[in-house]
Design goal:
The protein is mostly beta strands. The protein is built from 1 helix and 9 strands, in the order αβββββββββ.
């Protein structure tokens, strides 16, 4: 019995190591999609009522393999409205052009209290299975953000209701 213990222990340790390594996700790199990459940006502001502002990104030309894991988004803030509610949303869709038929995949309340580029880490990574994603924010009145037309966003969408 004692002679069997050592080989079994070695086999057990080898299997334990193999299963541990198999559970580590592989790293494929980061991809940044942006609507604020150029020097020609302007300040946009929210007036009248809370407004949804979204940017669409077509992933098709990038030749990516799905599903993709989205783990953070950012917004370039010119002037925040501390204490006002902000909700970040992520939609995905198959055809692009308009978010009318997009599916909500994630929403998360966020706190934006100061100006600058605010990076928001998602509560959990969102798996993207469609070639077009829409990333947006429900922004309060008097909120000001920076936007330009030289980034990789294919469309900006504004709405006053869900």
């Amino acid at each position: 019995m004692r002679k069997m213990f050592k080989p079994l222990l070695c086999i057990f340790i080898a299997l334990l190591i193999a299963f541990s390594l198999a559970s580590i996700p592989s790293f494929t790199g980061d991809l940044i999609l942006t609507n604020n990459s150029g020097s020609e940006s302007g300040v946009f502001y929210i007036s009248g009522e809370q407004t949804l502002v979204m940017n669409g990104f077509d992933l098709t030309p990038l030749g990516l393999q799905f599903p993709l894991a989205l783990d953070a988004v950012s917004i370039s803030v010119n002037r925040a409205v501390p204490g006002a509610p902000v909700t970040m949303v992520i939609y995905e869709e198959a055809n692009g052009g308009s978010p009318v038929d997009a599916t909500l995949t994630h929403q998360q309340p966020v706190s934006i209290t100061s100006s600058g580029v605010r990076r928001i880490v998602l509560n959990e990574a969102v798996l993207i299975n469609q070639p077009v994603i829409w990333v947006g924010f429900y922004l309060p009145v008097d909120f000001r953000f920076n936007a330009d037309t030289s980034g990789s966003s294919v469309l900006t969408y504004w709405a006053w209701s869900a």
